[in-house]
Amino acid sequence: MIKTVNLTKRFRTDEIETTALNNVSIEVKPGEFVAVMGPSGCGKSTLLNILGMLDNPTDGAYLFDGTDVSKYREGKRTQYRKGNIQFVFQSFNLIDELNVYENVELPLLYLKISSSKRKEMVMDILDRMKIGHRKKHFPQQLSGGQQQRVAIARAVVPNPKLILADEPTGNLDSKNGIEVMNLLTELNKQGTTIIMVSHSQRDAAFSHRVINLFDGQVVTEEVARQAVAV
Ligand code: ADP
Ligand code: MG
Predict the structure, then answer these.
(1) Would you state the pLDDT for residue 229?
(2) pLDDT for res 223
(3) What's the gap in Å between 79 CA and the centre of ligand 2?
(4) Maximum distance among all alpha carbons in the chain?
(5) Whether pLDDT at 42 is above 90
(6) Average pLDDT in the 200-212 region?
(7) What percent of the chain has pLDDT over 90?
(8) For residues 118-146, average pLDDT
(9) Element (H or E) spanning 24, and its range?
(10) Does 18 contact ligand 1 (Cβ within 6 A)?
(11) What pLDDT was estimated at residue 220?
(12) Nearest to residue 65, comparing CAs of 34, 100, 108, 30?
């Protein structure tokens, strides 16, 4: 489903060049739940943003279902992303002016789904995320755990092939964090492929497989342990 070949990303600000990703080659199969781990600044978010087609690599190939999408321009990336990929962020990223129902409905509006079908899909996912009773509430009236459940509902409602989660429990206490991980696990069991960035061993334990990044490169688990120990 996903394959990267020597993916490299360099950022240039003023005179300083940073290599955020250095020849990253990974594969993720449909139905997998993969955790990407590594210390702060090692390139996790950069990798997720490229896999989510928010940005292009400087070099290398990114194959999504066999199509090299690494050189698509922004408009084409957005188009491709809409039906295929959804994000969950640490900061929830809900729209404050919209209530729970309206936040979750948004991706369906972009996909031009009819209003009766939208209602059915939104209510179904809100119930599955145990947040249906809060549908008229606004984000600031909810706890962090509830907000992340809404964000997950919004990600999953258009039935994407891939969910990318960047530190999804980073702003949550332990109880809510475990609840969010249980929901992601549930979605994965129902068939959604998930790639999650985390620096939490607890969260990684919910995944099938861990990819360790260090200084922009994929490293073995042993190397990653030594790197953390230094
Ligand atoms: P992580 O998510 O693992 O903490 P990031 O992917 O955010 O790491 O960052 C990797 C490296 O790339 C860091 O050195 C960071 O400062 C740099 N970087 C990330 N995004 C940008 C950007 N938009 N412009 C310049 N440098 C960036
Ligand atoms: Mg990050």
Answers:
(1) 56
(2) 67
(3) 25
(4) 57
(5) yes
(6) 95
(7) 90
(8) 96
(9) strand 16-24
(10) yes
(11) 82
(12) 30
Q: ∠ at Cα 70 (188, 166), nearest 5°?
A: 40
| Rounded Cα–Cα distance for residues 102 and 122 (Å) | 9
Question: If you compute the radius of gyration of the chain from its CA atoms, what whole number of angstroms results?
Answer: 18
Cβ–ligand 1 contact at 43 (below 6 Å): yes
Is residue 6 within 8 Å of 24, Cβ to Cβ? Answer: yes
For residue 47, give the H/E element and its range. Answer: helix 44-51
Other Cβ atoms within 10 Å of 228 Cβ, number? 13
> Ligand 1 center to residue 17 CA distance, Å?
11
CA of 40 to the centre of ligand 1 (A): 9
Please give the pLDDT value at position 199. 84
Please check the confidence at residue 186 and state whether its pLDDT lies above 90. Answer: yes
Q: Is the dihedral of CA 152, 134, 140, 179 positive or negative?
A: negative
**14 Cβ closer than 6 Å to some ligand 1 atom:** no
Residue 225 has pLDDT above 80, yes or no: no
What residue's CA is closest to ligand 1, atom 21? 11
For 193, the enclosing helix (H) or strand (E) is strand 193-197
The pair of structure tokens assigned to 31 is: 């139905």
